[in-house]
Design goal:
The protein is built from 12 helices and 10 strands. It is α/β, with parallel strands linked by helices. The chain has one domain: Alpha-Beta Barrel (TIM Barrel), CATH 3.20.20. β4, α8 and β5 form a beta-alpha-beta unit.
Amino acid sequence: MSGRLPALVLALFAALPAAPAAAIELGVQDDPLVVRLPSAFGGFGADRLLAPDRVDALLDDLAVDTVRINLPWAQVAGAHPGDPLQLWLYEAAVDRVRARGRRVQLTLSGPAPRWATGNGRVGAYAPSARLYAAFAREVAGRLRGRIARYSIWNEPNWWNLLRPRKRAAAIYRRMFLKGSSAVRAADPAAKVLIGELAPLAQPTAATAPLRFLRRLTCSDGAWRRAGRCPRLVADGFAHHPYSLQWAPEYPGPGRDDVTTGSLRRLTRALDRLARRRALATPAGRSLPLYLTEWGYHARSVRVREPQRSAYVRRGLALAARIRRVRQVVWYQLAGPPKAAHVHWDTALLDPRGRPRPVFRAVRGWSRGRAKRPLPPVVGPAVP
């Protein structure tokens, strides 16, 4: 074969148009602004933040498809089991988001009310799966037809979000089984996601996501059955692939970590679990990925502008390159007021609502992506 022929073949392939990008959703989460929580940021309530019309305009500018909201159980629960949930702020937020043509994705999160925990205190210690299912059933029933997807709990592999840590996977398994069944019974059209895991192992704070997933599915190191676990059925796997202090390509220090740079570790694990029917979609297929929290800190010592914007563009490109990724949710929209002394700030806007450079990076990516079609906006379903 002539030495020039391989070069000619490569040149021809390079001239071909790139394969179309997989359709992907852009989501945003900012509960204080979207739900208008009066006690947000330690007393600096929503009336001190951006006006609702301004929030809507910013989401329009970003071409946001989906708004994710965390619904903390203890915050809306009554004093006793069976008391009606106080959902009016969340119902109003859901209706407002949908009126602008966007999906709503709801995470049924902790903490649990004192009457539902193993130690009788508000928190995340051994929450009752039966009482959690009752909570999920009431929420899904009252919001029937208005929520696109539900997630069961938030970051169960983080030490103080589901306790005790050694039993967290088993507790989460029971909560998912009962909670997902309750949601499906109350709103059959809604999808249910599993996971919502933090990305990196931390000795005193977080179990590595793949290690947690092995415990959740009774799997050994090669993802073979290593115990008796009931089959888990979900519509997608939710994950938080932060690499806050590193480039988005950074895979994490351990082989069980999952960041934007190591998402294929997770897809391979989900493939193996689906093949043995331990965790799969209702059709028996491997779960798609929903990256339901992601971002970079605005005031990071290690990642400053313009590097932050460059990392964000690269991270979004990494996610979109994997066809199993259905969604990326940016957390959060506006930074907390300085007087609130809140240290987490991955916001696209400063506390006064002025766009940071990273806002333009996300907006540019969003406007250039292949988008998934939005559902028609209809009124609330009548129970």
